Amino acid sequence: MLPLLPKSKSVIFLDLDGVIFDSYGLWDEVIEKVLALANISYTQTIKKHLWRLNMIESQAYLSALFAKENLTYPEKKTQQLLEEAYQKVSLMPQAVETLDDLAEEDFLIYAVTSNYDDLAKIGLESAGVLQYFSGSYSCIALGFPDKTEDFYQAVLETEALFDKTIFYLEDSTRHLKTAQKFGIQGVYLSNTDNPQDNQEQAFRTIRHLKEFTTIVKEEMND
């Protein structure tokens, strides 16, 4: 971990999937391939149900679908397909420019993800943006099923960030609400490809990544 930084250093938390990684379709493709191994169609019903679950719950749900066919869920094969996919993951439009702008403004940037830690790091490295991040935190790697209060508490404690101003870009209002309990200032990235897209008035909402940099600069100059 980095040494304790000056108190003036402000912090950015960035979700990865759907914010930095253009990975919604990637997951659909992998799950479709996995289900095909059991001759199960990847229906809209299954897709919508998976969107409501965290990673641990999703694996249990998929395992149950395979069990109905008297088959064992191919966990290793799924992991292999995901690793291959994240080695070629695309970035969201304006992702590099936004990261570059934030780095130029001397913000300390952290990835906070519900994804598996190895997939997050494979994606960041293969996409050539790992160098922008001072750290990457996966709730699963820290032993939490989702981005719970305990997860955010652990990140803040580990990096000694309690006295820092933190801006957080997410595509989940649920996660923003949890982080808000720690005084973290949330911005919601709306995406029509997100089945749970929900523009709540509780958070500033943007549709393009570059808008986030503008908001952060405005807030810091107030």
From TrEMBL:
GO biological process, one term: DNA repair
Protein name in the entry: HAD hydrolase-like protein
Cellular component aspect of the GO annotation: cytosol
Top-rank taxon: Bacteria
Alphabetical list of Gene3D superfamilies matching this protein: HAD superfamily/HAD-like
Keywords from the UniProt entry: Hydrolase
GO MF entries: phosphoglycolate phosphatase activity
